[in-house]
Design brief:
The complex is a heterodimer of chains A (164) and B (427).
Chain A: E1 2-5, E2 11-14, H1 16-19, H2 23-32, E3 41-43, H3 50-63, H4 67-72, H5 76-90, H6 94-107, H7 110-124, H8 129-136, H9 144-154, H10 156-159
Parallel strand pairs in A: 1-3
Antiparallel strand pairs in A: 1-2
Chain B: H1 12-19, H2 24-29, E1 46-50, H3 66-78, E2 85-89, H4 97-110, E3 115-119, E4 126-128, E5 137-146, E6 159-167, H5 169-177, E7 184-188, E8 191-192, E9 198-203, E10 209-214, E11 218-224, E12 230-235, H6 245-253, E13 260-264, H7 265-270, E14 287-293, H8 299-310, E15 317-323, H9 327-330, H10 336-343, H11 350-354, E16 358-365, H12 369-382, E17 388-395, H13 401-409, E18 419-424
Parallel strand pairs in B: 1-2, 2-3, 3-5, 4-5, 5-6, 6-7, 6-8, 7-10, 9-11, 10-12, 12-13, 13-14, 14-15, 15-16, 16-17, 17-18
Helix pairs in contact in B: 3-4, 8-10, 10-12
Amino acid sequence: MITLISSDKRKFHVLEEVANQSLTIRDVIEDRRGRRRADRIILVTNINSKIPEKVIVYWLRHFLMPEEIAHASMSHKKAEKLKKWEAKFFDTDIDTLNDLILAADSLDIPSLFDGACEKVSDILKNRSAEEVGEISKIENEFTHEEEEEEIPSENAWVWRNEFA
Amino acid sequence: MGEADRISSLPADVIVSILSRLPLKDAVRTSALARSWRHLWTFLPGLRLGWLGDPLGDTSARPVASSWIERIHHVVSSLRGPLLHFALAHRFSSDQFALLQRLLDLLLQKGPVEKLRLSSLFERGVIHLPSFHSLKELQLHRCRIVLPADFRGFDRLSSLTLRSVQISNDHLHLLINLSNNLTTFKATNFVALGDQPFSIKLNLPLLRYLEFELDKFVERVEVSAPCLEQATIRSYAYCRSKEFALVNLVLVTSVVMVSSLYLDHDVLKSLSFAALPSNFTFSRLTCLELFLNARTTDKRKCDTFIWLLQSMPLLKVLNIELNDYDYSIVTDSVDILMRELLLKKHNGISCLDKTLKCVRISMASLNSVMTVIALVKFLLQNARVLELMKVAYWTGPEVDPSMLEVLQNAKVTASSKAKVVITREWM
């Protein structure tokens, strides 16, 4: 059993085999193998407690369905179920997705990283810059000149409504 | 502004990896979001253009406009980071191949391209493949390829996929045998440039995965691959198999060390083992997949089947897929297929005595279980450590009671643990 501590000081106890899905944690565990119990605590900075909960839920779901199996002999039904589950899992607001991406990036969990990035890109897909700005709350601080002339002329075709 | 912009606080490389999942047009448009986003898209590590994801592409599509190629050219030249992968699936007209070639040459300058995928270029134009020295993965599909005159191989190439590629025999040899680090090679449906059919010699010291399709353009294949672990060998659906007897023998003798082997019907049928030493074995093979054509019944196939079992002392998993879509014909040819099996005594088949644990037979309709019922019986009666015999089907009625009865009667098992399962599976 290893312990993860989030930035707001909450503790999460996870089976080693489950947390192993994070390559970062796997390396840490490997480094500290054979040492005292107290060393089996991993601080997860920059991540508030809401995210470890979600990450652990994701781990548990995937722990029950290891990817090798998913690849080789998993029946279509199970694959479909997992897909549905993931769709639901990632169906959340863009801030949570951001945090998940950060967590997956720092903990090195490739499938979670890919899934969350995929979802964010789905949200941003086929939208105008204004819409994207609104969804992601990105503040546009361009000057009038940049906005009206410079940017539109750089890659003119992307601002036109035609097949790319 | 109460709420914070969280997305911009992500590390730049993470944002770029989100951008790389967007259509190019959307990714470029993010330059208008904010100053910090102005040039982020120019660090895209790769471009995917066209009908990727759709393996066959849109064959009815018209060639792209030349202005489209110019545009992509401009996009590629504006990129500031290294360009690691590039994928393109589009139809081009013959007069556009010069533009396309210019684009490829630009990729070479931009590089270092590690993954390149070109598909469905269709028209008669020839692609002169530039010497991408950092290439690790190359996928070519439906195009004509010529190698540069001073081609010295792709040193780092580990995965090569050729599907419906037109290439000359010489260039094919250069491409494969000068790429010493290949671990994966998949080749289907070659079209020879010139009249000579292919005679292919593969000498690949690190190859681990081989997928090969034999067809009328392939006359002879020799594989020397001491590290091979998995091989899939099938023959092109509409070819008569007798032409391949020699090919298959040579190919199969060189896959002795694999742990997983897939053979389809025609290969199986033409497999000639007369020339092999009597103690020949697949000494590591644990999983065998066979694709059987239920329409043909052939005594030789039965012998080959027994021979395969004999030569695979460690076989654990046997998957048999029955090609029985046209089952009106199948039901007529009831069970002659493997009846032979039951007539003979088979002793000393090591895998049946010691290792074979799982057999899975899948077919379109349960009706065709009649064609393999002798095979099912044979395995149940002879496999002493069998744990699971699974018969799966995916069309037709739910389990027909008479079929169940047939299978129940077949259930005289040699292994006390054997379970017989009949399931209808969703495809």
